[in-house]
Specification:
single chain, 3 strands, 2 helices
């Protein structure tokens, strides 16, 4: 997760998860999107979906909303990445 001058990583995560669960999940968790990355501007609620791990989605958000705090997660899974662990599907 990238650092941000106004918000802690924990605050970005908390706000991002809240937006995802309350407003975005029902729109993006479709079969064709499972496994893709969704990046969310926690300040505007705007989001972008990326097809792969190239970080295109957060870059597009930064172009639209310069300086915004961005939260990224993998659609349909408990985390964006697993280092030494396993990604688990969410229900």
């Amino acid at each position: 997760m990238m650092t941000h001058p106004r918000l802690s990583s924990e605050e970005i995560r908390r706000r991002g998860e809240k937006l995802y669960e309350q407003e975005i999940r029902s729109q993006v968790e479709t079969e064709e999107n499972i496994g893709k990355l969704v990046s969310i501007s926690i300040e505007t609620g705007d989001y972008e979906i990326g097809d792969d791990d190239t970080l295109d989605a957060p870059r597009r958000l930064q172009e639209k909303h310069p300086g915004t705090a961005v939260y990224t997660r993998r659609i349909g899974y408990n985390a964006a990445y697993a280092i030494g662990g396993v990604l688990e599907r969410t229900k």
